[in-house]
Amino acid sequence: MLVLVVSHFVGAALAPSLVRALGRRAFLVLALVPACAFGWAVAQTSTVADGGVEYAVTGWVPALNLDLAFALGSLQWVMMLIVTGIGALVLFYCTWYFSDDEPGLTAFAGHFVAFAGAMLGLVLADDLLVLYVFWELTTVFSYLLIGHDPTKRASRAAGMQALIVTTFGGLAMLVGILLIGLEAGTFRISEILADPPVGTTVTVAVVLLLLGAISKSALFPFHFWLPGAMAAPTPVSAYLHAAAMVKAGVYLVALLAPAFADVPGWHGILLSLGLITMLLGGWRSLRQLDIKLLLAYGTVSQLGFLLVIVGVGTRSAALAGVAMLGAHALFKSVLFLVVGIVDRQTGTRDLRRLSGVGRSAPALAAVALLAGASMAALPPFTGFVAKESVYAALIGVARDGDGTGIGPVAGWTLLIGVVLGSALTVAYTARFLWGTFATKAGVPPTEVRPIRTEFLAAPALLATLSVVLGFLGGPESRMIAPYADQFPPSEHHAQLALWHGPGLALGLSVVSLALGLLLFWRRELVALVQAALSPSSWSTEHAYLSLMRRVDRTAVEVTGLTQRGSVAIYLSVILSVLVLLPGAALVDAIGGPHDVVLWDSPGQLVVAVVIVVAAVLTVRSRRRLKAVLLLGVTGYGSATLFLLHGAPDLALTQVLVETVSLVVFVLVMRRLPEYFTDRPLTRSRYWRIAIGALVAAAVAGFMIVSTGARTETPVSAAFPREAVAFGGGRNIVNVTLVDIRAWDTMGEIAVLVAAATGVASLVFIGSRTAIIKRVADFTPKVPSDRPASAPGRPVWLPGGRTLAPERRSIIFEVITRLVFHTIVVFSIYLLFSGHNNPGGGFAAGLVTGLALVVRYLAGGRYELDEAAPVDAGALMGLGLFVATGSGLAPLAFGGTVLQSAVVDLHLPLLGDLHLVTSVFFDVGVYLVVVGLLLDLLRSLGAGIDRHIRDEESESEPAPDSGVPA
Amino acid sequence: MSTSLSLILAAAAMIGCGVYLILERSLTRVLVGLVMLGNGVNLLFLISSGPAGRAPIVGGGDGAMSDPLPQALVLTAIVISLATTAFILAMAYRSWQLTGGDNVQDDVEDAAIRRLALTDQASDSFDLSRQGDADDDLDVPEEEGRPA
């Protein structure tokens, strides 16, 4: 059975390419998929007739005890024949319904076959959770099928409405399923039916399940989605909204009725809502002018009727219910298919404009007449057979309850209601046949394009079945008997037959027929009454729309309230939570044990005071540069604190970073306004002060409490030993970076590359990087009055020539010339000694970067390119490559990623060389950091230089001197 | 484990001032605040790692070593903060190029939603999907007894 279900989804996946290759003829191929499933079901006939059940279980999620369990019993067999048989015929019909150039046909074919597969899975599932999965799949595919034409607002709205309503029911059902599964200890349907759980929980669960069933089967008050769904193409209506999907609710009720029909609320909900729906649907159907909508409301009415009869829960009602289910699927799909043909061949569905169609298309009319007669329950059609047994079953219930516990008042009300509903059915059937085919006085005959035989074949076949099945009451009862026998035996012997002999049931059939014809005959009067009673001001559809509007309005209000679009407000909220929640816990904890000293060394206090003063002054400063310089003070102060704490690596890095930051700040600040925007002192300022002070106090509190909180030895206690033994280095911080926690460092240098790329792309909007321009490429705009430096006559810095004289500083150039190489050599020393002494890749890279900064500041951007004639991106890439390579290299020697090896070599002359492989990783880090700084100088330095020059040359069209900067 | 109150004082001051600054509108001030906040948090690592000691270098002298692990973590944090600083500065510069200032603007879309909320209107997407009476291309189902 799993194969049958899966083959549908395979077919759905292939459908788009098939449609592309074959056009609409692809539907003929696709129809084979459900047809095969139909053939398989037919082959199981004898097993099912003998009361046998086919099981097929495939493991799915063993940890959850969830299996793809399928079962084929009597009820499933009937549903499977409907789903696959009508599915195949409707696909066949699609071949002639659509034209090759129908937009969205590829998607439609896929969705349709997938829907058929989901529907098949739904009726075969023997596990409530699997059933739920297929249930929701049908919802999703029906949404896609209803919204077949996404360019039309009506079809979008209808699809969304159907989706929301049925998903709402589906979610309620899921809760119900979980409750039942927990009570019963299993989700297997066959086991639950064999031993149904009882109790209040089960009652609640069953009510939730019914909510899912009645929303799916379009019962009042959810009925409005079904007429809305008529925006779908007619084959969809014929299959989903007549034969298959809307029957899912009926099927679920029929499936669970043997176990739960006596649960409190079951009868109350199903019988009352079903009856209301039956009458309401029939009544509204009589008002419709669109023949498709007429059928849709008729379907609503019939679904109510079906849920009443399968919900009663007696043996004869079960038999009648399943017979009615099959009969309805047969005649209603025929009628929808007929409407599709009428719509295609005449171009209208308005019964006021259709006239004389019966005369011009007699075969079509005959087919519709057969199905209509079955719908109106005329003998000898299967509709009549089923309705006779329904009456018989309900008479039994009305007389003595028939073991259901339904009282006589309710029983007789039910019977009378169903008779009235049937009368309405007769009336709207007559209205449909008259409206579609009759020749109306005063209406010009409608032009009907010729109908191909194949187009009519599917409805004709189904209509014939309606007749044939009417004569096969005996075999039909035998097939349904295994399902009906799950109920206790009824008073009278239930049997489907054309002729039960004269009795109350036959009398009721005659009464409903007569009443229905009367309603049709006096239709003018009925229309007047309809108009008088028209509830146009209020309906469940309006309620749904206003509910949706209210949901949307609430969403707008909530979004407007919470999503203020201001970073400051979001941060305030986050920080307030920090103060309020952990801060509240702090009040309690602050009295606990803690261990605080005023200072580790008196110097600490001095530095701390400097930091506090600088921080406060930073906040108060209105000049950008002043704020940045004061920020630098706090940074250098931190570095001093690091040093005092015993962290020379940190102090070194902090000083270097602080210096580079200052340079970067200044490079950008030269373009920004000197002062921060002058803003009046607002109240929000005090809020900010309050939040800042509270956060500071909370953080201080956390720190004081945390001093007493540590109970375990630090994880780093073993680091010193391991650093020497495995990392081969004595500087533990550096070994931590390149060995113990090398993955962190790996991630970090990747972040550096990303940040540098981001900076460069923000400055060089057009291209990734600036072109490297060396001094030789420089051509002064105005020839210099002095001769260019002759070869052999050394200058301090070659790039200085490219600067305007007033921007040069000879002393700076001289000093740069003197110290540059020293700085670079120092950085190389830091790089290689970092393993054992303060230093390492980060510090070394920053020092090299500072050397470049000095060259740039002294000689301008040409000088920078002279100092480092390489692409920054390439440098960083190389760095990442070296780091990754050195990380992966140990794999080649049977090690693990980032493992270090220590190699001791004795080189002549140089002495012993203690080489640790992680130094290569550090070289990678070094290259990345140098690349980062070079990139910053190129973009924020040289890049902005160019922007300034471009602006100056724009504002001064005739430059009076060679100012290239 | 004894902790220096001086360190806590310095960290708290930097964090408090940093918080005040990041709540500002000027991107430069936000950045200054962020860097200061970062410096403060780096100190917190140091505080939580225990008392001061000698440098964590094996064989570098006598006495207790300071804890090396938080130092390694802070070292990466310091370098990352440089990259962040540069990136935000580039953003401030770009913002200055485009708008002539570096103020962080409020989100325009959010402001539009606030306007809807103030005028009690539904969202745009709702208007696009609903089935209403003012529809242009929706043929409202006609029924008898209801004027079309």
From TrEMBL, chain A:
Keywords: Antiport, Cell membrane, Ion transport, Membrane, Transmembrane, Transmembrane helix, Transport
The NADH-Ubiquinone oxidoreductase (complex I) chain 5 N-terminal domain, residue ranges: 63-108
GO terms for MF: antiporter activity
Pfam families for this protein: MbhD, MbhE, MnhB, Proton_antipo_M, Proton_antipo_N
Gene Ontology CC: plasma membrane
Domain of life the protein comes from: Bacteria
Name of the protein in question: Multicomponent Na+:H+ antiporter subunit A
UniProt organism field: Nocardioides soli
Automatic annotation (TrEMBL), chain B:
Gene3D superfamilies, A to Z: 1.10.287.3510
Pfam families documented for this protein: Oxidored_q2
Cellular localisation: Cell membrane
One cellular component term from this protein's GO annotations in UniProt: plasma membrane
Keyword Transmembrane: yes
Membrane topology: Multi-pass membrane protein
Keyword annotations from UniProtKB, A to Z: Cell membrane, Membrane, Transmembrane, Transmembrane helix
Chain segments carrying region Disordered: 124-148
Principal subcellular localization: membrane
Membrane-spanning parts: 6-23, 30-52, 72-93
UniProt entry tagged with the keyword Transcription: no
Family assignment from sequence similarity: Belongs to the CPA3 antiporters (TC 2.A.63) subunit C family.
Matching NCBIfam families: PRK07946.1
PANTHER family: ANTIPORTER SUBUNIT MNHC2-RELATED
Protein name according to UniProt: Multicomponent Na+:H+ antiporter subunit C
Species for this entry: Nocardioides soli
